[in-house]
């Protein structure tokens, strides 16, 4: 049955599915994990970095991109599709500034990206974008925001979320560990993001990319060294809490 | 085509907000088409637009602006800023540059950034400023405004200044006249202050001088 309704995505299947959209969501599930956390004065994005081939030149960040001074996004899914979406979003950020004389709110640019994605689920001869995006930033009034979009064109606001491979495991970790104390300071929020990624990333720190935005400050991408020191701190804390447990037994 | 911009409109910012005053004469050459035209469009409780130039052009484009402002508020769940509203109008008019539109408008409002006043015209000009007067009576109005304006005017002084400026302009400009329609833009929205016949204003000021 499914094979007959794959072709033109403008067509519903008899049981109400848009199969192309669902297949796009499958493509997203194959992409490397990305996690986003909304703190009080900081927003954090972390992505799983695939190991680089020997002859390939290592570029620091490909998956976390600034859309404007106060907004950035990470994605999971088809990198090439993401490039198009990111470019359109960047242009829209500037267009908005030109016509409205105000920087975009995170919700506005998320809505723009989601509307763009939806348009591609309802056009002839086009396929949906195969990416989910995590969009973070601060609005003009200083409030931190985290939004997630998916290939169908829906978007929601989140306190913390993960997309891509193993997203479920990371999200369960976040549901357990996202508490007031965990996001009380910027440092704790960053640590929570790293801990969440370490749950699913093999070989630790060198396969993680990390970026933060603090209120009224531009995107800051962590160097490999800084990430290593975060991971080392977390490992140390883990050891100490294990020791304590052993002692109390 | 040199259209006569038969009007006097003015607006100025002061410590208590923005005062907007317009005359009400619509002329077609030497014929007074309308004695009491409405030259202020109430876009929303926090935005006003004045009209000078071709009545048809002003009405059409400013009503279209009102539609866009409403759509903006529905889509973005917050009221449009004065700078964005004036930019929308300026861009709309700019597309028709050189095609004979005649619009000289002031967009006044109060938004997150405080009181706002922009002058927008058919050339695509868009200026922010503390005081503007448009229409062919504007030179007379500027004379009164410039000699009486202070940013720290009281509300009553501001009303008197605006009223006097329009009245004196209608006194000398053949294409302005009728009544003074005055609005006051405050933090919680605009109020319509008054509708005063200009001849009353002139006679009162003459009597006061006797």
TrEMBL record, chain A:
Pfam family for this entry, one: Proteasome
Subunit structure: The 26S proteasome consists of a 20S proteasome core and two 19S regulatory subunits.
Domain of life: Eukaryota
Presence of keyword Glycoprotein: no
Proteasome alpha-type subunits domain location: 5-27
Main location: cytoplasm
Entry similarity comment: Belongs to the peptidase T1A family.
Gene3D superfamilies: Glutamine Phosphoribosylpyrophosphate, subunit 1, domain 1 (3.60.20.10)
UniProt subcellular location: Cytoplasm; Nucleus
A cellular component annotation (GO) from this entry: proteasome core complex, alpha-subunit complex
UniProt KW keywords: Cytoplasm, Nucleus, Proteasome
UniProt xrefs under InterPro entries: Ntn_hydrolases_N, Proteasome_alpha, Proteasome_alpha-type, Proteasome_asu_N, Proteasome_sua/b
Entry protein name: Proteasome subunit alpha type
Any one of the GO BP annotations: ubiquitin-dependent protein catabolic process
SMART domains membership: Proteasome_A_N
TrEMBL record, chain B:
GO molecular function: threonine-type endopeptidase activity
Keywords per UniProt: Cytoplasm, Differentiation, Hydrolase, Immunity, Nucleus, Protease, Proteasome, Threonine protease, Zymogen
Predominant location: cytoplasm
UniProt cross-references to CDD domains, sorted A to Z: proteasome_beta_type_5
Reactions this protein catalyses: Cleavage of peptide bonds with very broad specificity
GO biological process, one term: immune system process
GO CC field: cytoplasm; nucleoplasm; proteasome core complex
Protein family: Belongs to the peptidase T1B family.
Assembly behavior: Component of the proteasome complex.
Protein role: Component of the proteasome, a multicatalytic proteinase complex which is characterized by its ability to cleave peptides with Arg, Phe, Tyr, Leu, and Glu adjacent to the leaving group at neutral or slightly basic pH. The proteasome has an ATP-dependent proteolytic activity.
Name of the protein: Proteasome subunit beta
């Amino acid at each position: 049955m499914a094979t007959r309704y794959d072709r033109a995505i403008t067509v519903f299947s008899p049981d109400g599915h848009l199969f192309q959209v669902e297949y796009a969501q499958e493509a997203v599930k194959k992409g490397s994990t990305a996690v986003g956390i909304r703190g009080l004065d900081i927003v954090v994005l972390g992505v799983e970095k695939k190991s680089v081939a020997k002859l390939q030149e290592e570029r620091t960040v490909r998956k976390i991109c600034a859309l404007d001074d106060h907004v950035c996004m990470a994605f999971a899914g088809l990198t090439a599709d993401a490039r198009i979406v990111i470019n359109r979003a960047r242009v829209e950020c500037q267009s908005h500034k030109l016509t409205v004389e105000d920087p975009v709110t995170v919700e506005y640019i998320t809505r723009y990206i989601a509307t763009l994605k939806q348009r591609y689920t309802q056009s002839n001869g086009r396929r949906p974008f195969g990416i989910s995006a995590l969009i973070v930033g601060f609005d003009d009034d200083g409030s931190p925001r985290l939004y997630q979009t998916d290939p169908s064109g829906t978007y929601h606001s989140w306190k913390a979320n993960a997309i891509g491979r193993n997203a479920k495991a990371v999200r369960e970790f976040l549901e357990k560990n996202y508490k007031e104390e965990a996001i009380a300071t910027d440092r704790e929020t960053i640590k929570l993001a790293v801990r969440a990624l370490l749950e699913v990333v093999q070989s630790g720190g060198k396969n993680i990319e990390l970026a933060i935005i603090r209120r009224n400050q531009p995107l800051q991408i962590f160097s490999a060294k800084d990430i290593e020191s975060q991971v080392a701190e977390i490992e140390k804390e883990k050891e100490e809490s294990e020791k304590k447990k052993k002692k109390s037994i | 085509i040199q259209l006569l911009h038969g009007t006097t409109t003015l607006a100025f910012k002061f410590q208590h907000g923005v005062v907007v005053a317009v005359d009400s004469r619509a002329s077609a050459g030497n014929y007074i088409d309308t004695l009491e035209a409405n030259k202020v469009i109430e876009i929303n409780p926090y935005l006003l637009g004045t009209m000078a130039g071709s009545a048809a052009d002003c009405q059409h484009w400013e009503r279209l602006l009102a539609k866009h402002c409403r759509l903006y508020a529905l889509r973005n769940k917050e009221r449009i800023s004065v700078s964005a509203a004036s930019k929308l109008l300026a861009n709309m008019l700019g597309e028709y540059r050189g095609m004979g539109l005649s619009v000289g408008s002031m967009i006044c409002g109060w938004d997150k950034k405080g009181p706002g006043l922009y002058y927008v015209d058919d050339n695509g000009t868009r200026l922010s400023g503390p005081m503007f007067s448009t229409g062919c009576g504007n030179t007379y109005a500027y004379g009164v405004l410039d000699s009486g304006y202070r940013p720290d005017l009281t509300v009553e002084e501001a009303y008197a200044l605006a009223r006097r400026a329009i009245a004196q302009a209608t006194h000398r400009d053949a294409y302005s006249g009728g009544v003074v329609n005055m609005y006051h833009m405050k933090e919680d929205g605009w109020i319509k202050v008054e509708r005063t016949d200009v001849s009353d204003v002139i006679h009162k000021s003459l009597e006061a001088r006797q």
